[in-house]
């Protein structure tokens, strides 16, 4: 039979390890000016989907690139734009879906302090949204993976010792 000290130690260790979950970071919200700019991004996405404007993929990349504060993040943002444009070409993208995708893309570039769990949630939401508008699993997965790559390039959040568990 375990002694009371051993039992107490095990309970304390379990409680400490359970409390070592990475706290969620602050999720940015767009102000009025950014909200208007995001309307342009949503239109770019719809133009890409409907093949209305051959310049729309370039416009998408330009619109997202301006939110990258680090020059080292620009290649990852450009790749996200390229993968998104490639996935959306010829799809049926509603205005609501375009706005939601725009918000996810914007968050992936501007959120600098979100947790691994929040990044995973953003990736899953992006993947689900793309699949729901008829994008293949493979292409949706490529875009979602790139969302994570962009986050690794833009984050300023240091990993803490307890996040290794």
Measure the end-to-end span. Answer: 29 Å
What is the helix content? 55-70%
* Rounded average pLDDT: 86
Largest sheet: none
Task: Give unreliable regions as ranges.
Answer: 16-21
The number of helical runs is 7
SSE topology string: HHHHHHH
Number of strands: 0
Could you say which structural class the secondary elements and strand pairing correspond to? mainly alpha
Number of domains: 1
Computed Rg: 20 Å
Estimate the global geometry from the Cα principal axes. globular
In percent terms, what proportion of residues is strand?
A: under 5%
Structural account:
It is built from 7 helices and no strands. The chain is mainly alpha-helical. The model is unreliable at 16-21 (pLDDT under 50).
Please outline the helices and strands:
Blueprint: H1 4-18, H2 32-50, H3 56-65, H4 74-88, H5 95-110, H6 116-132, H7 137-154
Helix pairs in contact: 2-3, 2-5, 3-4, 4-7, 5-6, 5-7, 6-7
Give a quick summary of the entry.
The chain has 165 residues and is mostly helical. The chain has helices at 4-18, 32-50, 56-65, 74-88, 95-110, 116-132, 137-154.
Core attributes:
165 residues, mainly alpha, 7 helices, 0% strand
